[in-house]
Structures are given as C-alpha cells and as structure tokens.
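Dear colleagues,

As part of the handover before I leave the project, I'm documenting each prediction I ran so the next person doesn't have to rerun anything. This entry is a single chain, and its sequence is reproduced below.
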Amino acid sequence: MSLLHQDSEKIDDAALGEEFTKGSSHVVWASVVAAVVVTIAIALYVIAGQKPPAATGEIEQVWVHPQHTETSGFDANGAPMPKETYNQIYVFALVKLHNQSNTPVFLHSITTNATLDDGIHSSYAAQASDYDRVFVAYPSMPVPHGNALSPVTTINPGQTVEGTIVSAFRLTKEQWDARKELNFTFGIQYQPNLQLAPPASLTFR
C-alpha cells in the first residue's frame, strides 16, 4: 500500500467522522426544538383549561360584637329554673358578590371561619329572617341594620348582589381576640367554593 493510498484513507475516515458529528448535532437541535414545542403546547393547554371563577366578591366591612347573655331564671310557663349565662361573638359582614359568568350562580351556603389554637371554628351565616331576628332579640345591638344577604341566593349573569350576613360563635372575647385567622366561604352549586378574606381592620362594637 502506497503512502498516497494511506493518506487517502485517513482523509476519508476524518470526513466520515465529521459527517457523524454533524448528524449528532442535528439530532440534538431537533430534540431541543421538539422539547420547546411540547412545553409551549402543554402551557397553552393548561392556560386554555383554566377558566376564571364564576363569581368574585369582596368583604367590604366587618363588625364584631361580643354578647354576654344571662337567662331570666324562668321557663316559658313562668316556673323558676336555674339561670344560665353564656358568651357569644356575633360577626356581621357586609358582602358584595358578582357573577362574571354567562350562566346563573347558585349560592347555597355561607360560613364564617375563625382559626383558633385548637383548629378552625366555622359558623353558618343566618338566614335572612334570622338576621332580622337578631335585632329584635337585641334591640341595642350596636351594628348597622342593613339589608340581609341570604345564604341561598341566585345571582344572574352579570348581576352584583350586596347585603349583610351574621354568624355567631360560642366564644369569649378573649378567645376571639386570640384567633389566628378569619375568612368567609361561599358555597356555590356546581362550582368551587369562593373564599374571601375580611378587610385588614375589624370594627368592634
């Protein structure tokens, strides 16, 4: 074998190796492009699947009233019975809800949630008629007597409703003051619950 033939084989092998290198580079770039395309497709799918909530809202104002109650010591027939005393915390909240979907929103419950050292204490908001009865039972209740928002309400597309709710907790003021968190949960039929936080400051009465 001549030196010329040997040099020719070396050149061919080098060219072949270069071709292999070029082919590998194309495969790497194709993999990178494919990965980017797949990532973008997944992101677009997730974004398209994320629908805005059907309802939005805000807690405009909250009034908190500690109520100490002592029974009269007589039953309904006027017969003597032991007196009872208990403490309650009444939480009034002025609420605004808006239906931003194109179908009706069916509100079926409202709860007030207070997180204490022993966990979350939840109290259902009173029905509209019971809301009014609170002011009858306690005529000196130092909270504005506004229009009640019923926990069972239908909100039509584009409609905004506003009203006041009231919940009660069997707690002392000291226990209430030691709470860690307060929020409100609005149960909506066929939709995820809507949870709203109160304003930074609460009004005590």
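Residues 1-50 form one domain. Strands lie at 55-70, 85-99, 105-116, 119-124, 153-155, 160-169, 181-188, 194-196, 203-204.

All the best with the project,
I.
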